[in-house]
Amino acid sequence: MSSSAAEPEAPDLVCQLDNVQGMVDALTAVRWKRLQDAIVELSEHGVVFIVEETGCLQAKVYLQRELFIRYEYGAQGRPRFGVSLGLLVDCLNTFSVPGRSTMIEIRYPGPDMQLLLKSVDSLDACIYAEVRTRIPDTISWDYNFEPAGSTPLSFTVKSAALKEAIDDLEWPGSSIQIMLQPVPPSVTFKGEGHGDLQIDFMYYVNTDLLTAFSCDRQVSYRYKYKFLRATTSNIPSSVIKDNRGSKVTMGRGGMLKVQHLVSVARTSVSHPHIDSAGYQQPSRIAYIEFFVKPEEDEDAVND
Amino acid sequence: MKFKAFLTENGVNLLEKRFLPALDKMGKICHLYLTRDHTMFLHNLLSGNEVQSIAQFRKEALFDDYRISSQNEDRIAFAVDISLLHRAIRSSVSICTEFGNGPTQNRLQIKLVKKLPPNCTQPMPFLTFETKGYKSAVIQDVPISKPLSRAEVLELQTALDMAQDLPQTLVQIQDLNQLQNFVDRMKHVGDLLNVSISKYGDLYVQISTTLITLGAEFQKLLVIGEQVDAPAEDRHLSAQTRSARAILRGDAQSVQVSVKHFAKSLQCHLAKPDCAFYGIAPQGACLTVIFQFFIPGSHQTDKSISLHCRLPVLDPGSS
Hints:
The complex is a heterodimer.
Chain A: E1 13-17, H1 20-29, E2 37-43, E3 46-53, E4 57-64, E5 70-73, E6 80-84, H2 85-95, E7 104-108, E8 115-119, E9 125-131, E10 153-158, H3 159-168, E11 175-181, E12 186-192, E13 196-202, E14 210-214, E15 219-224, H4 225-230, H5 237-242, E16 245-250, E17 256-263, E18 285-292
Helix pairs in contact in A: 1-2
Chain B: E1 2-7, H1 9-26, E2 29-34, E3 38-43, E4 52-58, H2 59-62, E5 63-69, E6 76-81, H3 82-99, E7 108-115, E8 124-132, E9 137-143, H4 150-162, E10 169-173, H5 176-186, E11 192-198, E12 203-208, E13 212-218, E14 223-225, H6 239-248, E15 252-258, H7 259-266, E16 275-280, E17 286-292, E18 305-312
Antiparallel strand pairs in B: 1-5, 1-7, 2-3, 2-6, 3-4, 4-18, 7-8, 8-9, 10-14, 10-16, 11-12, 11-15, 12-13, 16-17, 17-18
């Protein structure tokens, strides 16, 4: 293979990242099954990974350009390509050395439209990868998330608590009702199936748990459990450990948006000045968003 | 056919803490081959499709008061379950440390015996471990196969002789942990590993499937055997191009092995070798890994211990 023979035009993107593990964490969060494809969209603002399932669930991972220590964008428009998410995560994982920050360079496209990765921080040992990309499928439905009204319907909850609640709802299974009500301000998760289970987050009772709450009318929608579960099942342990909030918003028509923040900072060993409260520069955060469509037969539930 | 010896403290340490855990990963059953001067643990020597591992100790490295006799030039070989052997030695150690007051007090004797087990009419062969504690003696019988016949021992010895050929070029890997980490993670991506070794001191390991190519290049490794200076013009090429050009020039060899086998051979680091050498046997017959052990506190090879693995080649590739 003589990739160097014909010098290709300037690539669409050359970027370097000093914390592979952060990227692995962020992408793992949206990997809810083993074989899964992702669409990658490049722009001058950063890289977005989009994953979806049967028109009911979509996840996006935003890696903003500020996360990269070098970001050279040379494309016109916003190039998109498809890639196997599972393979990419396994591949990136290979670059990640435990207890050390590994610096990698990501380049697109290669001579055969591949995504090229290589480690750049060691002189005598180099890891390299070429991941085949494909022409992306069109995204089957557009997740135009619109606010449900003038007052947003949203709450922010500790990520670990959200995950725990959703994990617990596995037992009743199949269909989960999420209800927000202003008086008393609370969020209710209710599962009915092989039994009933109701989990209430009360805003004033435990402000540690529910850190923010906004709701001006009672609203309730049902969601398929397996889609709801996908929003928290692979949340990286670093997010649970930091235990920042995850923000949940209900949009028009009951579209559910779940947002997580994943730290892509270098391991704290090399940044001892990050204070113990876990504060990190906002630029070192990857944003993850899930959109879940409600189940169809919902008119009866909403007033 | 007689075998009786006392395991030294060093021998117990070598086996219990280092070699048996490593050899256990290579396969449950191995041949224990005893000669006048050596003790050998041999894995898969008589079958071609698995990782062969050959661990050889001079008798002084493990035993004192070593007595062996057989009509076949004092050679005895049998198959034994490594995990049982490991368990027997481990419990002997715990008895010694519990009651012992010095290495000479508690001698761990190993003996080849034939016993009539309960509910059996035929006597069966065992390797017996006898530990004398302060007030008690513990005897453990590890079942073994029937000792190999003269013809079978000859077959084993022939296989052993054939397994001694050295690759023309060997490159040294010092950080086995790094390599193991990498290969363990790489396993998820594919099953076949291309390994290429150049006379410049480069080692490449690479998995290629229709969807992905993932590899690592280790450069400027110490070379033993045939060695050539790396051409300066290659310096700025990509790892894959560099490897391909080295093969074209005849300065490198490449073979394809199973990732699982490669990962398995790396388990030998449990034996705590000081470094490892990788090489490809002539005609790409196998991938050889030689583990090196230093005399403690020195950088001199401990010649009384040797361990090497041979990985079967799935595709002879280019040579």
